[in-house]
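Q: Give me the 3D complex with phosphoenolpyruvate.
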Amino acid sequence: MIVNMSDGATEAEIDHIIERIREAGYQPHVTRGTQRTIVAAVGSGRRHEIEALAVAPGVDTVVPIAQPFKLVSKQVKPHRSIVNVGKVPIGGDKVVVIAGPCSVESPQQLLSTAQAVKKSGASLLRGGAYKPRTSPYDFQGLGVEALKILKDASKQTGMPVVTEVMSTEDIDLISEYADMLQVGARNMQNFALLRKLATAKKPILLKRGPSATVKEWLLAAEYLLSGGNPDVVLCERGIKTFETETRNTIDLAAVALARDLSHLPVIADPSHGTGKQSLIAAVSRAAVAVGADGLIIEVHPCPERALSDGPQSLDFAAFEKVMRGLSDPLRGIANGNA
Ligand code: PEP
Ligand code: MN
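A: Here is the predicted complex, encoded as structure tokens.
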């Protein structure tokens, strides 16, 4: 339930509502706007006690929260959230580009990539240390050695780093080295991981599961917010469909929809979303056109030698070209009357 306070509600009136929400067995979540304050009652409690607050002093209306994801919904927080990763804000006016290799392979590979993507305009560095691979025989990542390489590249370039966490056991260690923790697509509904990350003091990049609906994706984010971590960035990375020409089917409508339903920043991953170098430029532009707050793109000094995801990784020159192309104007629209 949401208690919309009236324009002139006093602090004492707001405090009273917060207290009554607690007494009714719910958790209160307060959002202060420039004009009005919203107090959401989240969890399960005695609903009729909240409904009765419609006549309490300073209350305008009491309405149900329409969506199952409560704290993630725009109804509870109507203005867009900005998530700061180091000094980089995601969700503001500018589109933020995260770039780097799928996997960290060596100090030289990562540092050269970091320097190149920074020069082309990327703001954050990515690189996998613990890799979720479909086959147990594929390269599994360098683990803690990769974390050290990431930290070093971050120090040398000033770029904050994003890396994936696959297990609850690794959260504390990875948090010592990374600025943002990625929940990979395969772990989107690993609820033990989500619950623990809700208490981590790091922003989370939450990828959409390959078979997850938008509602399930936003409910996964709800685990993080309701557990105490408000710093969540959503990432569309493609879903499974009957199509086989692309690795996944990137769902750009879901980027627009997630921004419609939620106040959280939403970015797109054209690399995993297509699996094809040749499609990254076009899909990146399309993602920005539908409102994406950022992009995450795989870049490797020599994609043919990459230990993971070479076919979708760009070399430095191709990445530079994608970055330049992002600001090209869209094609003009023919005017049938002219
Ligand atoms: C990755 O970012 O390299 C990765 C494995 O992503 P996803 O979880 O989207 O497959
Ligand atoms: Mn990858």
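A quick observation: Residues 6 and 60 are 5 Å apart (CA to CA).
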